[in-house]
Amino acid sequence: MKNIAILCSGGDVSGMNPSLKHFVEYSLQNNLNPYFVHDGFEGLIDNKIYKASHQHVAGIINRGGTIIGSARSKRFMLKEFREVAKKNLDALNIDMLIVLGGDGSFRGMDIFYKEHGVKFCGVPSTIDNDISGTEYCLGVDTALNVIKDSIDNIRDTASSFSRAFVIETMGRECGYLALVSALTCGAELCLIPEVVYDLSEYEKRFKEQIKNGRRYFIAVVSEGIKEDSKEIALWFEEKIGVESRVTVLGHTQRGGNPTTYDRLMAYKFVNYAIDGLLNDKVNSVICYAKKGFEYKSIDEVANTKYQLDSELLKYLKRF
Predict the structure, then answer these.
(1) Any residues with CB less than 8 A from the CB of 185 and at least 6 apart, and which?
(2) How far is CA 234 from CA 19, 199, 225, 228, 259, in A?
(3) Domain 141-254: CATH architecture, name and number where available
(4) 208, CA 20 to 30 Å: which among 12, 19, 230, 295?
(5) 2-139+258-304 has which fold?
């Protein structure tokens, strides 16, 4: 029986634990010995590599985060520590690795493969949904549902007090979470890094809406926009004349009970990752698009800037 390991790298997402559960189950179905690497690449270096069994994954499918921990590793960027990681894997006869993470993690593994020949398959796992080559990353649906619930709850208070609420989502330089949330929650304003905006263009329209009976506003903004969320709230008060509040959703978006969709995608991503490794897809990332799953090279994924779907950007015009 061959040995295979899995690790989580970078920010955690809801969907990692369902991935770990199916990794153990599907590995055993394929006569593979499954191993967990705790704390990401740091665990490879510190030899936190343990054999996994059904016992370790029982009851975790409904839990957010990851039971094996995750980390960002500066040490793995250095060749001397990658050599230590390789020795640790060799001691356990592990030459296949699945990495749940983002493009930075995949770049690191690409170097590791070229230096030491450790076969790997990357599974895009970030709520920002900003990895080029894939239309969906693990954890995004759960994050969107957390945001949706938060906005729906805030709307109750906004309407009761006739206020404007500025709700800030995560996303780094990608406005996916903010845009999809704004569209599906009926926000009146959406600001994202990908689109240049001028707040003065909204003044006349919003004041007209107030004259026609509007009592409150919901604004969804991405953390990567040029203004601070507090500045947007101040604009509502000074220019629109509406009392305003700011809600920064922050790390609430990372956690929570994984949705049915994320559990299903975790299942599919892991299936394709293991199948790929067993069929000579030894240095790739499994990506998802409308036509289905496909294996892409690191160059296609990690060295290409992600761009928001053009259809989604067209919908932004409603704001």
Answers:
(1) 147, 148, 151, 152, 155, 218, 220
(2) 43, 12, 15, 10, 36
(3) 3-Layer(aba) Sandwich (3.40)
(4) 230
(5) Rossmann fold (3.40.50)
Domain ranges of the chain: 2-139+258-304, 141-254
Same fold, 2-139+258-304 and 141-254: yes
Q: Model-level pTM greater than 0.90?
A: yes
- What distance in Å separates the CA atoms of residue 135 and residue 288, rounded to the nearest whole number? 6
Strands 119-124, 32-37: pairing is: unpaired
**How many C-alpha atoms does 166 have within 13 Å on its Cβ side?**
22
CA distance 276 to 78: 28
Burial class (CB in 10 A: 0-12, 13-18, 19+), 96: buried
Catalytic residue from among 128, 130, 141, 262: 128
Question: Tens of pLDDT along 7-60?
Answer: 999 999 999 999 999 999 999 999 999 999 999 999 999 999 999 999 999 999
